[in-house]
Amino acid sequence: MRGLTYVERRRVEWREAPDPQLGSDREAIVAPVAATPCDVDSAILAGHGPIEPPFPIGHECVARVVEVGDAAGVTPGDLVVVPWSISCGRCDHCSAGLTAHCSAVPHMAMYGAPIGGAWGGLFSDLVRVPYADTMLVPLPAGLDPVAMASASDNWSLAYRLVAPHLQARPHSRVLVIARGSIGLYVCDIARALGAADVLYVDPDPAHREIAESYGARTAEAIEPVHHGFELAVEATGRVDQLTLALRCLVPEGMCESAGNHFRPGELPLLDMYLTGVTLRIARDNVRTHIPDALGLAASGLVAPARVVSTVLDWEQLPQALPERHLKPVFVRDLPQE
């Protein structure tokens, strides 16, 4: 089989690898049918990642089940979402919803980067899922695999960034400072869940247009709006933008940072102390949130397909993936409607 490998800045290539084999009755082999780069993949492809290449890339996809163990919990032919992090689903951490910190596998075990073991990437012809019975999430009937290719990470992460807060503080005002798909998904979800106001800040006019289609107000840039928002979401990976988000919060407000901060920087700690705000910068326990995120998508209240910038054939991956797209989806063998 082939696996797409990140070789150097702006370059990926197919590399041959042995076909994966089942190693236990809980395992499954899946074939991605709709895969997309995560926002952090874009940073990696631009040469900003912390890990030296080469390594298999890709950790967001909807896949078709090909082969299963006796206790895998899925059936060949099923369409499933493959979470980006490896988790057993049964240890104390997984049972507490901390699936990104599974104690049954090495720390930070994941697809798409050689961290916590060699698990390969989801831009591969075939993928082994070691705990299929607890990792894989069936795609609800009627949901488009292309629209939900990001449910492995970015879509479900966006759900986690806003849904619990809007459930606890209905009609909150939400600030989104972003550069990629996560921020746009947040706009869609926040409006669907009843946010009183959503302000999306991004210098890219095409991104702002999508945010406006979700009912968000938009701006190219803003100065700190003191005591303006109950919730701020930063998804830029830039500390200056995270600082801006923090300074826009009401007292006791919440800031969720979904940016991968590969570079150091200073935070406004005195301002944070004086306003009592909370900042969370968290590796996402995505498996815990995928079912609810898919349920929202199936409700018809949201439109994640608007974030998909282009749909390309699987064989175009080596040429097209390094190009700058908002959210391209690469497809093969999609089920016929």
From TrEMBL:
Start and end residues of each Alcohol dehydrogenase-like N-terminal domain: 25-139
- The source's domain of life comes to Bacteria
Q: Which UniProt keywords apply?
A: Metal-binding, Oxidoreductase, Zinc
For activity, the cofactor(s) needed are:
Zn(2+)
* Gene Ontology MF terms: alcohol dehydrogenase (NAD+) activity; metal ion binding
Where would you find the membrane-spanning parts of this chain? none
Principal EC category: oxidoreductase
The protein's matches in Pfam families, at most eight in alphabetical order, are given as: ADH_N
Q: What is its EC number?
A: 1.1.1.1
Show the InterPro entries listed in the entry: ADH-like_N (IPR013154), GroES-like_sf (IPR011032), NAD(P)-bd_dom_sf (IPR036291)
The yes or no answer to whether the keyword Metal-binding is present is yes
Entry-linked PANTHER family: ALCOHOL DEHYDROGENASE (ZN-DEPENDENT)-RELATED (PTHR42813:SF7), ZINC-TYPE ALCOHOL DEHYDROGENASE-LIKE (PTHR42813)
Q: What is this protein called?
A: Alcohol dehydrogenase
